[in-house]
Specification:
Blueprint: E1 2-8, E2 29-32, H1 40-51, E3 56-59, H2 71-81, E4 88-90, E5 96-98, E6 101-106, H3 118-140, E7 147-152, E8 187-192, E9 199-203, E10 206-210, E11 222-227
Parallel strand pairs: 1-2, 2-3, 3-4, 6-7, 7-8, 8-10
Antiparallel strand pairs: 1-11, 5-6, 9-10
Length: 228
């Protein structure tokens, strides 16, 4: 049995931008790897729009979404604001399990981060890395979880920049180190945002995918199918 997921990220929408997803869904579920809009109302309207076309929309806030805001406070606001949006879930400190597939979401704070000082982003990155490690350890012991999809709104490691990484990543802890705690090799897919290029590659048994919008037209979801 396979479960399909549509992958999108990095919409960077302003209040006056148009975004129409009608007739573009190819799966029952959608994974959004952050950076939808820095404007709260625009973000909510976009999530509401996408939720009309999927049985589940799973979103992790990215650096652009929380630009100029306190990260934890804004994520808690999103958790409250999206409760009335049907089929929409925020992945902030919230693991979703669908038919044995667990979905973990973290911001990550890797790379050139919008509106945050390097020291502040570095502290948030450490917190996200610790959360990711601890969550992976718990899920490897969970008998009902067969596979794990990790969604980060930033690039998981330097290699995924393919030679075009910003200088700052040399001083940051890569999120990918969390995979060393996956003793049962359950992490099969890593979806990420904050990238300026499409990525679809396999490294050491993990499928890495990035599908940024970046105002490109036409733009379509990248579909992945996960066997269970």
């Amino acid at each position: 049995m396979e479960i399909g997921f549509d992958i999108i990220s990095d919409l960077y929408l302003d209040p006056n931008d148009s975004f129409n997803w009608e007739n573009k869904a190819t799966s029952l579920y959608c994974l959004i790897a952050g950076n939808v809009s820095a404007h709260h109302r625009t973000l909510l309207l976009t999530l509401t729009h996408l939720s009309k076309f999927y049985h589940g929309v799973f979103f992790i806030p990215g650096p652009y979404d929380v630009k100029g805001k306190d990260y934890d406070e804004y994520c808690n606001l999103l958790l409250t604001s999206t409760q009335s949006i049907k089929n929409c879930s925020i992945l902030y400190h919230n693991v979703i399990v669908i038919n044995g597939i667990a979905i973990i979401g973290v911001n990550g704070w890797i790379g050139d981060i919008h509106g945050y000082e390097d020291s502040e982003a570095g502290e948030l990155a450490i917190n996200d890395l610790l959360y990711l490690k601890e969550t992976i350890i718990k899920l490897t012991r969970h008998l009902d979880v067969k596979k794990i999809i990790t969604v980060s709104s930033t690039v998981p490691n330097k290699a995924m920049y393919f030679g075009q990484e910003p200088e700052i990543v040399n001083h940051q802890l890569p999120l990918q180190t969390a995979l060393s705690y996956d003793s049962q090799f359950k992490v099969t897919n890593w979806i990420f945002g904050n990238s300026n290029k499409n990525v679809d590659t396999h490294v050491e048994g993990v499928h890495y995918i990035s599908n940024p919008y970046l105002k490109r037209r036409p733009y379509y979801a990248k579909r992945i199918d996960v066997d269970i």
